[in-house]
Amino acid sequence: MKTLHKFIIKSYIGPFILTFFIAMFFFFMLFIFTYIDDFIGKGLGAGVLSKLFFYYSLTTVPMALPLAILLSSLMTFGNLGEHFELTAMKSAGLSLQRIMLPLFAFTVILSVMAFYFSNNILPYTNLKAGSLLYDVRESKPALLFKDGVFNNSIEGFSIRVGKVDKDGKTLHEILIYDHRAMQGNNIVMRSEKGFMEQTPDKLYLILTLTNGVSYKEMIDNPSDVNTHPLVRDKFEQRTIRFDLSGFKMNRTDEELFKSNAQMMNLSQLNQAVDSLLIKDEIRKTTFEKNLKQSYYSKTGEMFSKIEKSKSDSIATDFFASLPKHQKVNVIETALNIARSAKAYCESVASDMSYDSFNKSKLNVEWHRKLTLSVACIVLFFIGAPLGAIIRKGGLGMPMVVSILFFLLFHILSITGEKLAKEEEIPAYQGMWLATMVLLPMGIYLTYKATSDSNLFNIDTYIEPIKRIFKSKRNQ
After folding, report:
1. Strands, E, within 135-281: which ranges?
2. Cα–Cα distance for residue pair 129/106, rounded to 1 Å
3. Measured on CA atoms in the order 338, 343, 347, 350, is the torsion positive or negative?
4. How far apart are CA 45 and CA 66, in angstroms?
5. What is the pTM of this model?
6. Minimal CA–CA distance to 420: which of 354, 359, 353, 352?
7. Residue 144: how many CB atoms within 10 A of its CB?
8. Considering only Cβ atoms within 10 Å of each terminal Cβ, which end of the chain, N or C, has fewer?
9. Is 226 exposed, middle or buried (0-12, 13-18, 19+ CB in 10 A)?
10. CA Rg, the chain, in Å?
11. 366 with 273: CB under 8 angstroms?
12. Which residues pair with 128 in a beta bridge?
């Protein structure tokens, strides 16, 4: 029996590794296509890109692992059925469940590893990837001059180059507007030719101009628009140094991103949810107290002052007995108190709604760490019986069937997560929706594969209908 178990596991390992890395590559390419515009033209070094790609390749594991288990289990049992090895095992008295046992144990081990990865490694990876991607997206595009186009990337300057040579350093017909004085286009430089190069630390751009002229408008009296004295200076060579420190990608403190739910483990998520619950309880207990002390008490004080100011006895209709100026004062004061109370209530309601939304996101991430592991087992019980029923190996039919089931799983997961985050349904219902829908399918497919049912044989479904019509004709 050990030999048979080793044979089944060896048959499974190859397809699993192949499909896992194919799935990772597919989801990684989706990331590249989504953010490709944020990478191009920013002069990012190989070190920054390699770190970013490495971290984001790890974030694809929660999507790639269930798909790999589904596809590889379907391929494995499809190959065993296609080569009649599954038939030989059943002829020897082994049930399908007994044949699936070693792979089921292997899948359970993968599920435990997936939970460890999701709870301990993935939050760290999300933190590194998220903070690095934010810095990349916020960094300025690399300085690039195009023929005949003004470039305003360098702060305080607007530069137009007529032509850039193939070496990327020699420039022709250069026009520079200096706006550092914030007085319009009062300083202009023209040059026939120039040469640019960066300092070794990439912090400065040295631009050497030859055969040029500079114009500077002297504004002694800004109110006098009729006189514009001009200073013109011709030069054979002039060197200008531009500060490029703004183009360097600056790293943001990662502590700013740690409050994101995706960057927490289970204990941190529990702690964050408990903090929000305690915060809500404190807010509820202090809301009524603050409302009474700050707003209701003012109304009582106002009327008590009015009562004390009255010399005669209290009238039956208190408000009607007041003078006109006191009536106006009472109405305006009451309106101001009501507006303040309304603003306070809306502020508290907004804070509670925001905390409730954050609590939903935290609960979603809490359940996500568990659903990944369980989804691996559920998809195994879909892929293995399907492979035994289809009896087709390779990447043809198994790939098509796996994609259909994975799309169903993915759509249900996204739908449930969205409904949970919008607080339409509880977080546990939204995050376990896909698993609860696919679990009965896995049980049904396992039952059909065990009983050697021709699930995809159309005659299996047409024959009962024919029998019904025949019985009606005989009657």
Report:
1. 150-151, 157-164, 170-178, 187-198, 204-217, 230-243
2. 30
3. positive
4. 34
5. 0.67
6. 359
7. 12
8. C
9. exposed
10. 37
11. yes
12. none
